[in-house]
Structures are given as C-alpha cells and as structure tokens.
Amino acid sequence: MKEPGFVSLKTKMTMGIILICLLIGASAVFFINSISTTIIDKEYGDKAEQITEAVASTVDPDEVLELKNAVLDIYNGIDKAVPSSEWGSDAWNEYIARYDSIRDLPVFKKLQDQFRVYQDIYQVDCIYLT
Prior knowledge:
Elements: H1 9-58, H2 61-76, H3 90-97, H4 106-122
Helix pairs in contact: 1-4
C-alpha cells in the first residue's frame, strides 16, 4: 500500500532532470544575451569612433566655430529655453523656429553636405555636430 503524498524515485528523477535542463537553458539564454550585447556595444563604439575620426579629419574647425557662434548668439538671446520633453507643443515649436535662420547660413549648408556624404558612406541615419 502506498503512503499518501508518496512520490516515486522515477518521478523525482524526471522532475530533477527537467529542472536542471530549465536552469541550463535559462543560463545559456542569459549568457548568450550578455555576450551578444557586449559584441554589439563594441561594434557600435568602433563604428562611431571610425565615423568621428573621418569627420573630424575633414571638417574645417573655423567653419564649425562660426556655426557654433551663430547658434550661441541665438541661444543667449532667448530668455527661457524649452526642454525637449515639451516636443510638439506650441512653446517648443516657437523655440525651435528661432533657429531656422541657421539653416540659411552657407557654413551650415556646407557642413550638412559634408555630413551627408559620411552618412551615405557609413550607412547611418545622421551625424551630429556637438
């Protein structure tokens, strides 16, 4: 006669093997995810550095300085900057509209054309000038 709550050795072994397989599977998924994230981060960093070096070696620092000064002149003339968290609001659109004159500067167009060349070469969506 079996005792109540009795679990056979075969059932215990089966459950143990299933539990071990689940643990090994979960560990493998975590490990592979960690490795792939590291590889992707390294590739992204390497590509960003390569693009940065290429752009920095060809961009004229005087032109960048001229553009920076034009942007800062507008920025310094504004009483209150609108944060990007208000993107799409009337205040945001009004704030950004103040910088529209920058797009008409010859130096902006020249730098934009240079950046577009690198965007095409390196197949990236955009290159920022900070």
